[in-house]
Amino acid sequence: MAFWGLFSTAISSVVYGIVITAAIMAILYGVLKALSDGIVRSVPFFITGVVMAVLLTIQCSLLVGAIEAKSVAGSMEIYLNQQLEGQQGIVGARDSQEIMNNVIDHFPIIGTYLGIANFAGHEISDIAQVMHDTMVDYLNTYIWHRVFWILGIIVVGCVVVLFFDKPNVSAGRRLAGVSRHDGSRARTGRHQRVSRRR
Q: Does residue 104 contact residue 115 with C-beta atoms inside 8 Å?
């Protein structure tokens, strides 16, 4: 049962990660196309886009999973308080690991991010609050790391695409259009001069 719960959470995290990635890529496509239509038609754009999509999907999926794990922190604290109610004493290193293993058995997603625990020296009555605060602090840091990775991937991807952009292509097309227009005017002028001579 725990396996299927963790599996369904992983699948939902990946799905949400894909959705977030698609939204980010759509926004970037619109912004880059507004800057230069030639950018979104270049080979570097497609190659960079594929790499960015894969990396962003991974990071966004991990981000969603961490947010989901953080959302069960309150339930974990309530569960531990119920399990440890009435017990007194100081928690040792072995005891804290056993408590963590028990938590992971009931909340498998926590085991994805936390596995080893050492809360030795704390009162049993305080262990639920201590574990809750520790887990939330760790997951907050983990979430911000994912956010910075996502922003870094976006920035690097945009820099690479803009670096390989060829502005001379669009300029060349405009010059070619002007040349054709001037050529047609010149031919028209010659035709008029020949007609007047007749």
A: yes
CA 196 to chain CA mean position, Å: 71
Judged by DSSP in three states, 85 sits in coil
pLDDT 10s digits, 155-193? 999 888 888 765 544 444 444 454 555 555 545 555 454
Q: Which amino acid is at 19?
A: V
Distance CA 10, CA 50 (A): 22
- How does DSSP assign 107-162, residue by residue? -HHHHHH------TTSBGGGHHHHHHHHHHHHHHHHHHHHHHHHHHHHHHHHHHHH
Q: What is the CA radius of gyration of the chain?
A: 30
Q: At residue 167, what are phi and psi to the nearest 5 degrees? A: -65, -20
Amino acid at 73: A
Residue 174's SS3 state is helix
pLDDT at 185: 52
Residue in the structure block whose two tokens are 């190659």: 47
CA separation for the pair 109, 103 (Å, rounded): 10
